[in-house]
Amino acid sequence: MQEPPDEDRVRRLLKTILPNGVTELRPVEGTAATWWVGSKHVLRLAPDAPAARGLRREVRLRDLVRPYVPVAVAACVTAGEWAPGLAYTLDTRLPGASAETRDVTAGGEEDLAGLLTGLHAVPVARVAPLGVPKAPPRSLDQLRRDAGGVVQRLDEDGEFEAVRLKQLTAQAVAQLGPQPDAVLVHHDLKGEHLIVSADGRVRGVLDWAAAVVGDPAEDIAGLAVAVGARAAVRSATLAGYGARVCLRGLWLARCDALLRLAARLHGDEGRPAAVLRVQLERAWEPILLELVSDG
């Protein structure tokens, strides 16, 4: 892996890309390979060969997806190599704030529904030639067992009531298998990748590097963690997904959130525990669909 370039090297690169030069340049928090360039652009630098392949693939995928979705997808202004074999892209910067800092309104839920509908509509036959990988659906039963292995300790820590996981019974797991048809899945719909306007509309979606052809419940799970279970399920329902797909996504999110918080509290580095607690709370919001299903 190549060491990320320092600011001087980034400025030298940008001089060859932007004839008028750059006055404002700062690294994006939490990464050494992404830079804000003025107010209109984002520079991304692949640190190794696999990341370079992914960056080039993402540019092509965004171009394919853009006509299908109602939200903005960053456009590539220019691309090249910042070191031998290592790609860079200079992308347009989407205006707005992260869903981690700004709530999504009912209009925003309609935007998310349009996103899910659009992803379902992208022809898989056009995705495959880009090199987007296929991902087999995860076993919800295995995920339930994994979450069951950590939930008691979380209960003892005062973080979560273990009895709540018992809502996910073996019978429920059997009913919540994946749907047979795989679709294009963003696969990383966390809050920081959703760009929200001041009026709560979802105006853009960032970072398509993790996209796969697979289980659409994974994107519903991502939304449950990003904007809450209620908003995620309402959006998925508006997109035409039925109760089983929605509940499958919800339980994927809930088990994932338990496992991530347990890992962070008991030794692993990663996102701050406070952030993971908020995500856990979002994913475990009670929803009307569950109450109706229980009845």
Rg is: 20 Å
Question: Helix-strand pattern, N to C?
Answer: HEEEHEEEEHHHHEEEEHHHHH
Tell me the span between the first and last alpha carbons.
54 Å
Briefly note the structural class of the backbone: alpha+beta
**What's the mean pLDDT score?**
93
% residues in beta strands: 5-15%
**Could you list the spans in which at least 5 consecutive residues all have pLDDT below 50?**
none
Number of strands: 11
Fraction of helical residues: 40-55%
Using the alpha-carbon principal axes, give the shape: globular
Helical region count?
11
Largest sheet: 5 strands, antiparallel
With strands numbered from the N-terminus, the spatial order across the biggest sheet is 1-2-3-6-5
What are the salient characteristics of this protein?
295 residues, alpha+beta
Structure explained in plain terms:
This protein has helices at 7-17, 49-65, 106-121, 124-127, 140-156, 170-175, 217-227, 229-238, 243-265, 273-283, 288-294; strands spanning 25-27, 34-37, 41-45, 72-73, 76-83, 86-92, 97-98, 183-185, 194-196, 202-205, 212-214. The radius of gyration is 20 Å and the shape is globular. A hairpin with a 5-residue loop joins β9 and β10. The chain is an alpha+beta fold and 295 residues long. The strands form 3 sheets. Strands 1-2-3-6-5 form a 5-stranded antiparallel beta sheet, with helices on both faces. It has a 4-stranded mixed beta sheet with strand order 4-10-9-7.
